[in-house]
Amino acid sequence: MEQAVLSKKIIDGKQVAKDVREELKVQVEAATAKYGRKPGLAVVLIGDNPASHTYVKNKVTACKNVGIESFLLQYDKDVDEKTVVEIVQKLNQDPLVDGILVQLPLPKHLPTQEILALIDPAKDVDGLTAINLGRLARGDEGLFPCTPLGIMRLLSAYKVPVKGKNVVVLGRSHLVGKPVALMLLAQDATVTICHSKTANLPEVCRQADVLVAACGQPEMVKGDWVKPGAVVIDVGTTRVENADGTSSLKGDVAFDAAFENASLITPVPGGVGPMTIAMLLVNTQKSFEMRMQSRA
Ligand SMILES: NC(=O)c1ccc[n+]([C@@H]2O[C@H](COP(=O)([O-])OP(=O)(O)OC[C@H]3O[C@@H](n4cnc5c(N)ncnc54)[C@H](OP(=O)(O)O)[C@@H]3O)[C@@H](O)[C@H]2O)c1
Question: Does the annotation count 3 as an active-site position?
Fold first, then answer.
C-alpha cells in the first residue's frame, strides 16, 4: 500500500497530543498571568519500579514544557502506609498544589484504593476517586481519567461520529473500559462493554462501528473481528519478549490484519499512549482554573 494511503488510515496520536499541548500552553500562560502563579502538579513516586520512574520523568518534562510547575515527591519502597496517608493529606491542604498524582502500581503492602480515595476530588487529576467516577456516571462536571479523555479527543480530532453508532469497548477497568464507555454513552453512542466472560467476543466485535480495545491481551483482536470500515482504537500496551532477546510494545489488536478492514486505526506505540500524558496536563490546568474560580 502507498505511504499516503497508509498514513491516511492511521490515527496519529503523537500529532494530536502535540496540538493539545500547544493549545494548552497558551491557556496555561493566560491563567498564570491571571492568577499570579503557575498550575502545580504533585507527583508521588514510591519504590524503584523502572517503568514508573520513566513515566514520572516524562510527566515532569511534559509539565515543564507547557508551563506547569511539578513537585516530585519520591519515597523508598518500604515507606509505611501512615507516612503515605500524611503525604496525601498534606498535599490536599497545599495551596500551590492543584493536582495530585500517585504513580501506580504502589508496592504491595500499600492499599492502593484506600490511598487514592484520600485525594481531594478537586485535585484528583487522574480522575480515579469514587466522587469523580460518580460524577462521570451522572453526566456531571468533574475530573475524569486521562486515557479515556485521550481516546475521546482522538475521535473528535479525526471527526469520527459516535452518535447512534455501535461502539464496542473491550475491557471494564475503572482506568479505561468503564470511563470510556460512559463518555461514549454521554455522546449518544450505543455502547457494548465486553470482558473476560463475554460470550462470542469476535461476533460482538464485528458489530462495532468503533472498536476500543483495552484488555491488555497482546494482539487478541484479529483482523476478521473488525467490520470493514470500522474505526479501531487500540489502548493495549504490553511489553513482549522477541525471539532475538529484544522486547517490543504490543497492542491488543493484530495491527496489520486489522488495518486491512479498518477505516482508521491507532498504532501502538504512537496512538493512545501520547494522549494520556497530554490529558493529564489538561486536567491539571482544569483543576487549577476550577480551584481559582471557586475562590474568586
Ligand atoms: N496507552 C496508555 O496510556 C494506557 C493507559 C492505561 C492502560 N493501558 C493499557 O491498556 C490495557 C488495559 O488496561 P487496564 O488498566 O484497563 O487493564 P485491566 O485493569 O487489567 O483490565 C483489563 C480488562 O480487560 C478484560 N479482559 C482481559 N482479558 C480478556 C479477554 N481475553 N477477553 C475479553 N476481555 C478481557 C478484563 O476482563 P475482566 O474484568 O472480566 O477481568 C478487564 O476488564 C493494558 O494493556 C494497559 O497497559 C494503556
Answer: no
